[in-house]
Design goal:
With about 325 residues, the chain is an alpha/beta fold. It contains 14 helices and 10 strands. The strands form 2 sheets. It has a 5-stranded mixed sheet, with helices on both faces. It has a 5-stranded mixed sheet with strand order 7-6-8-5-9, with helices on both faces. Strand 6 (about 145-150), helix 6 (about 155-165) and strand 7 form a beta-alpha-beta unit. Helix 10 (about 235-255) runs parallel beside helix 14 (about 325-330). The chain starts with a helix and ends with a helix.
């Protein structure tokens, strides 16, 4: 064999050997990771003020799911509509929103199911005006610019408050913005009112001295919901049940320990502890199955949006309710 050929052969052999060795190292590392890491991951969508944010801060869900071979990945969203868009894109498996985002999601064909409910917080969101605003009641909003997140719980509060005041939805000028942009528009005076939920509501009361024009007082309050992709709920009912059991236990703890909860969450959300304490105490927690009474309440929300022509078709909420004995048993435990 010519010398130059032998040299090329040796180089090729070295490269093959090095590549094979690298592949063996990578395979060994991946195998070790697979043995040490949980088999699967559940992806949770949450918002700043919800119970899931508290669970994330406590790391209790990771502890509960680890024996089942699951790890948890957390994804924060500014509002419910964005969270359910992620659910629709299969970017998360389970999340928590107010009642209206789920209605808009069902109207948009999102494949999700209601897996549990939380009671509404009648004083946890409001229609706000600036301290020096001439607006004194909801009827004064006629013809005014109102900032809100379209399809959010704020959207339903505005709709029902206007209806009670005898004002049609098309008689106001809605400005659809996510919370951060809505606050900027409100603070600069580019809108006349802002409809928002905690903790943004509590922050506006504190730093902007915003005045509450109306909340759910005297109105029919709604529930909030835990939602999952239909496929995840059907394939992994034991994981959904475990998540719901954790939300129930944590919610009961928060109801008994609001001050401790505020101390835990304040540094996470970057707000002063007294402000966080305000919104923690405004939100009761009691994770429950979605029973006929809750379905009827949510059907009323859907019918109201359809009647206002904010969704294109009439919905049957019961079509998207998940029923599983394991979840019901987990939520029945006191």
């Amino acid at each position: 064999m010519p010398r130059i050929t032998r040299r090329i052969t040796r180089r090729i052999t070295r490269r093959i050997t090095q590549t094979a060795a690298a592949a063996l190292v990578a395979l060994s590392t991946a195998s070790a990771f697979a043995q040490s890491a949980p088999d699967r991951i559940v992806r949770i969508g949450y918002q700043k003020a919800g119970l899931l944010a508290i669970i994330k801060a406590q790391h209790t869900l990771e502890t509960r799911l680890k024996p089942l071979g699951y790890d948890v990945r957390w994804f924060e969203f500014p509002a419910g509509p964005q969270l359910l868009e992620a659910l629709n894109a299969n970017s998360i498996d389970l999340g928590y929103t107010g009642a209206p985002p789920a209605v808009f999601a069902q109207a948009g064909g999102v494949r999700f199911v209601y897996v549990a409910a939380e009671p509404g917080a009648p004083h946890g969101e409001a229609i706000l005006v600036r301290a020096d605003s001439p607006l004194r009641n909801v009827a004064d909003l006629r013809g005014k610019k109102v900032a809100l997140q379209r399809g959010s719980s704020a959207n339903y509060l505005l709709l029902t408050a206007l209806r009670k005041a005898g004002v049609r939805y098309d008689e106001i000028r809605p400005v659809y913005l996510p919370p951060a942009d809505a606050r900027a528009a409100f603070e600069s005076g580019n809108v006349d009112a802002w409809v928002i939920w905690d903790p943004y509501y509590a922050a506006a009361q504190d730093s902007l001295k915003a005045r509450t024009l109306a909340d759910y007082t005297g109105l029919s309050n709604t529930y909030s919901f835990y939602e999952a992709t239909r496929d995840f709920a059907q394939k992994h009912p034991e994981i959904v049940a475990a998540v719901l059991q954790q939300t129930r236990e944590t919610g009961q703890w928060v109801n008994r320990h609001p001050a401790e909860t505020a101390a835990l969450i304040a540094p996470v959300v970057g707000l002063r502890q007294p402000l966080v304490d305000t919104w923690v105490r405004r939100a009761p927690y009691d994770t429950t199955p979605v029973d006929d009474r809750i379905v009827a309440s949510q059907q009323g929300v859907a019918d109201a949006f359809y009647g206002a022509k904010l969704i294109p078709q009439k919905l049957t909420v019961a079509d998207n309710v998940w029923h599983d004995k394991r979840a019901q048993t987990a939520l029945a435990a006191k």
